[in-house]
Amino acid sequence: MTQRILVARAIFPETLARLRAHFDVEDNPDDAVPTREQLLAKLRDKAGVLTTGGERIDAELLDACPQLRAVCNMAVGYNNIDVPACTARGVVATNTPDVLTETTADMGFALMMAAARRMAEGERYLRAGHWKKWSYDMLIGHDVHGSTLGILGMGRIGQAIARRGALGFGMQVIYHNRSRLAPELEAPLGARWVDKATLLREADHLVLVLPYSAASHHAIGAAELAQMKPTATLTNIARGGIVDDAALAAALREGRIAAAGLDVFEGEPAVHPGLLEVPNVVLTPHVGSATLATRRAMADLAADNLIAALTGGTPPTPLNPEVLARR
Fold this sequence. Notes:
Layout: E1 4-7, H1 13-20, E2 24-26, H2 36-43, E3 48-51, H3 59-64, E4 70-73, H4 83-88, E5 92-94, H5 101-116, H6 119-127, E6 148-152, H7 156-169, E7 172-176, H8 183-186, E8 192-193, H9 196-202, E9 205-208, H10 222-226, E10 233-236, H11 245-253, E11 259-262, H12 273-277, E12 281-283, H13 292-310, H14 321-325
């Protein structure tokens, strides 16, 4: 009997065709966001699911869906999946690292530059018809080249941002991570590990690239923002909840930091109203990996993982490989 799977959200038709060659697929062509109850009902008779980062897979759902054997996320982040709960129940969990590293780093650097050079403010100013003459202080921002780039979270994407800053813009790179990088990774970037307080105090442009967890919730809040330079920018391409958005809105409104670039938000797709009211923030709707080539690669890798997990193969990027060892 053909195994049944769920593709939780709309994805590329070519990816669906690949999956249909192996499984009985229930897809979501209308891309309706399933409620918790709908997701649970759809998964009761499924052996696998391709999720897209927003569908919560936890112990309660797994217990209600005992046939489920594979949960494959089309995202590098996996805070929507309770991996220990999957492991305890013998369910393979996977994500899609590496294929989106460079594209997401591009986006982070673009947001940082747009915030530093006040690009969103400038576009609104021009469109509103306010540009009548040159003036020495019109929309003055802050340099990126030669400045100090601070990175909180120095995994693949953090290192890719560091390369852009150090090699392309002559930036001094400092970073804070739970563990220091190996010297051979630090050396080409001239990157220097510092404690978090030093990172906040010295960075001209602080970029957040750490995974979300209970430990990183509000890693940047009012106290941390108070330690930053008033000329500094903050860029978040990690996950909503790492920044206290209310505290950030207040800091921007009061000029306690210069600007911010945000691609992720607490409670997204809702955005804290305070962030919508301040001019010195660039806002994008969680599109850090949104290029055609990268999204196709993510979909293909998620499909590869799901096909391998349910047909006796080895998924390329498992989050809990110990489950595979117990087969």
